């Protein structure tokens, strides 16, 4: 890996779910609210975990051509339809299921995210680079005040990360070479794919992504990143 020179970086692209926003708490909050309205008991954090766990297998089936390509809202909805009866949350109308599916649009940022992004935006282009679809990312940004210069989604390429075209095309659309773009994520596998595509990488671990005391299933192993920072504020200072 070439020596990292921060002065060459022109743009930062961010994974969103788990890196910028706390998906588990937000989804569990809305699951609990729906359960309360139905008068049923549901383990809302376990529901959120199961919903998230279904995301990668569903995405992989689409990547293999076993199901038609669809955006993340569509994948989330198909997973939700399987989870509702499993967790005893029902009967649920189509409108109620659609509203719950949009819980992924209403996620809150980690405490450092807004201040860190604002600091970074004074010196760099800052953009999403997420498997979340464009409407989801825009709605999330409007609600949470996320100060993106640009919203880039794998949906725009009809691909999903970690397909290399997602990373290289994102750099191209921003007008930079891959080496001028820093991928920021809490997930080592996402960063490893970005590295293979020529992007520079910043690892920002989120130890509470899966709940207090629960380690992420995504391991660093022997991977080496250009920057490791505890949060976005430290990342801005390091750059």
The coarse overall form would be globular
Specify the CATH class of the largest domain. Answer: Alpha Beta
The average pLDDT score comes to 96
Task: List low-pLDDT spans.
Answer: none
Q: Can you name the CATH architecture of the largest domain?
A: 3-Layer(aba) Sandwich
N→C terminal distance: 19 Å
- Bin the strand percentage: 5-15%
Decide which structural class fits the backbone. Answer: alpha/beta
Order of helices and strands: EEHHHHHEHEHEHEHEEH
Report on the biggest sheet. Answer: 6 strands, parallel
Alpha-carbon Rg, integer = 18 Å
Specify the helix fraction band: 40-55%
Strand order of the largest sheet: 5-4-1-6-7-8
Task: Write a concise synopsis of the structure shown.
The protein is an alpha/beta fold and 239 residues long. The chain contains ten helices and eight strands. 38% of the residues are buried.
Would you write up a description of this structure?
The chain has helices at 23-38, 44-53, 55-63, 72-86, 94-101, 113-121, 134-144, 164-174, 188-196, 232-238; strands at residues 11-14, 21-22, 108-109, 125-130, 150-153, 181-185, 200-203, 227-228. With 239 residues, the protein is of the alpha/beta class. It folds into two domains: 6-20 and 110-238, HAD superfamily/HAD-like (Rossmann fold, 3-Layer(aba) Sandwich), CATH 3.40.50; 23-105, Putative phosphatase, domain 2 (DNA polymerase, domain 1). The chain has a six-stranded parallel β-sheet, sandwiched between helices. It starts with 10 loop residues before the first strand and ends with a helix.
């Amino acid at each position: 890996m070439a020596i990292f020179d921060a002065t060459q970086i022109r743009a930062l692209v961010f994974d969103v779910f788990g890196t910028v926003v706390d998906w588990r708490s937000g989804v569990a909050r809305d699951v609990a609210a729906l359960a309360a309205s139905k008068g049923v008991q549901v383990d809302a954090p376990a529901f959120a975990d199961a919903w998230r766990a279904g995301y990668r297998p569903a995405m992989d089936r689409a990547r293999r051509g076993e199901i038609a390509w669809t955006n993340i809202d569509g994948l989330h909805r198909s997973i939700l339809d399987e989870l509702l009866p499993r967790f005893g949350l029902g009967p649920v109308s189509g409108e109620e299921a659609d509203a719950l599916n949009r819980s992924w649009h209403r996620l809150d940022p980690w405490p450092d995210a807004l201040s860190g992004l604002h600091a970074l935006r004074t010196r760099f282009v800052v953009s999403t680079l997420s498997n979340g679809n464009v409407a989801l990312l825009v709605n999330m940004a409007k609600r949470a005040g996320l100060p993106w210069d640009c919203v880039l989604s794998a949906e725009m390429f009809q691909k999903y990360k970690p397909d290399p075209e997602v990373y290289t095309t994102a750099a191209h659309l921003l007008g930079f070479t891959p080496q001028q773009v820093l991928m920021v994520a809490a997930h080592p596998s996402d960063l490893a794919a970005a590295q293979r595509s020529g992007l520079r990488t910043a690892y920002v671990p989120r130890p509470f992504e899966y709940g207090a005391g629960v380690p992420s299933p995504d391991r660093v192993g022997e991977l080496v990143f250009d920057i490791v920072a505890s949060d976005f504020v430290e990342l801005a200072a390091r750059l």
